[in-house]
Amino acid sequence: MDYHSPASFTEASALAAATTGVTRFLAGGTDVLVQLRSDMVTPDLLIDIKKIDGVSDITRTSDGGWTLGVAVTGAEMSEHGELGRDWPGIVEAMDLIGSTQVQGRATLVGNLCNGSPAADSVPAMIAAGVTVSVTGPDGERTVPVKDIPTGPGRTSLAKGEVISAVNIPPRGPNGGDAYLRFIPRTEMDIAVVGCGISLRVDGDTVSEARVSLGAVAPTVLLVEECAKAIIGTALDDAALDALAAAASAACNPIDDKRGTIAFRTEVAGVLAKRAAKIAYARAKGEQA
Amino acid sequence: MSKLHVSTTVNGDSVEFLCDPRETLLDCLRDKLNLTGAKEGCGTGDCGACSVTVDGRLVCSCLMLGVEADGKDIATVEGMAEGEELHPLQQKFIEYAALQCGICTPGVLVAAKALLEKNPDPTEEEARYWLAGNLCRCTGYDKIIRAVMDTAADMREAS
């Protein structure tokens, strides 16, 4: 295995494009090193992107959004304060992943590129409308987070492409987001179902909404029917029931040791309701 | 594959070693620097027995490559005592008998020290969540938590 720590994303991309073997990019390493050790993936080329300038920066953009470097850790996001006041759902989703030790290394982009349908940060990012900058042999492009995963362990990134930044949109006024997951214990587990919701209110009425479900299909879903169920409502019981029904209807889960198809389908509706209530309260400034 | 040269600081001392890029920081600490305090429990970041701090940040040394330590400041359990003088956490773990087989203890100590540096006055719930990534298969958690909480109280009084 060759190890490189290039000084730029262009160089990282060129290294990955030029090799014929298996390539992995190394940020926090909390998935890559486990795969390496268990012989699931033995890269011929390991490209550590942490020596690139700016990869650990959390920066407010001129339009009021945020740019996060690809090596920003969960712990750094939780400690930031201002980021969490804008986007509590994204920060709480990332914070749910693993232990204190894992939080010291794990990154949003790693969670995304690992390609797990149960990745906690991904529904939160999709709900928030996050995009990633991708550097490749043909230059840079911007891709919505929802278009990166294509199946368990697979992404739409082409050979030589590497994610070079996370772009979080401006929160704007009267907005709130939330992420909830179900696990059978309180800590240190993988989502059986996850739900991220971001919405905006106009008075008591939901004016915009995005609802994303994790661990109920081969990829994390953005469910438009869920958004339609609550837009234009004051999130009354009828709207919440319609939201839950739409969430359950969107599920196409697997049966496994963590949850049956019936259980995941039911819980997706329950979590959607609960996450919507939290996001709504945050949008109205009634809850942090 | 040729070995890579790594210069790093461990417990305040400058050290250098050569390693294969596949070797973890844990492998390097134990096998090259003879710092065998950090243990390999699971090797997959689940158990915390290999906990160390890197630039003050608590991490699993089994989830980090040795080459990534280049230029970093590493702290392990071996650096906790000052000569013969045990760290207050170590002293308290003995008093409370907060260990049984001892495999998890170095990782728990390093993690607890990191907690008290960040939050000198944790609630029991905060301490339990912080240490959730340090598994004790003898299941001695209560004594561990009591030792950590009592150390925190003593250290607050002393400061």
Automatic annotation (TrEMBL), chain A:
Sequence ranges assigned to domain FAD-binding PCMH-type in this UniProt record: 1-173
Alphabetically ordered keywords of this record: FAD, Flavoprotein, Oxidoreductase
Presence of the UniProt keyword Flavoprotein in the record: yes
Signal peptide: none
Superkingdom of the source species: Bacteria
InterPro entries: CO_DH_flav_C, CO_DH_flav_C_dom_sf, Diverse_Substr_Oxidored, FAD-bd_PCMH, FAD-bd_PCMH-like_sf, FAD-bd_PCMH_sub1, FAD-bd_PCMH_sub2, Mopterin_DH_FAD-bd
Name assigned to this protein: Xanthine dehydrogenase family protein subunit M
Species, as recorded: Ruegeria spongiae
Lineage: Bacteria, Pseudomonadati, Pseudomonadota, Alphaproteobacteria, Rhodobacterales
Automatic annotation (TrEMBL), chain B:
All residue ranges annotated as the 2Fe-2S ferredoxin-type domain in the record: 4-80
SUPFAM superfamilies registered for this protein in UniProt: 2Fe-2S ferredoxin-like, CO dehydrogenase ISP C-domain like
Keywords: 2Fe-2S, Iron, Iron-sulfur, Metal-binding, Oxidoreductase
Keyword Transmembrane helix appears in the UniProt entry: no
Name the UniProt record assigns to this protein: (2Fe-2S)-binding protein
Naturally occurring in which organism (per UniProt): Ruegeria spongiae
Native organism taxonomy: Bacteria, Pseudomonadati, Pseudomonadota, Alphaproteobacteria, Rhodobacterales
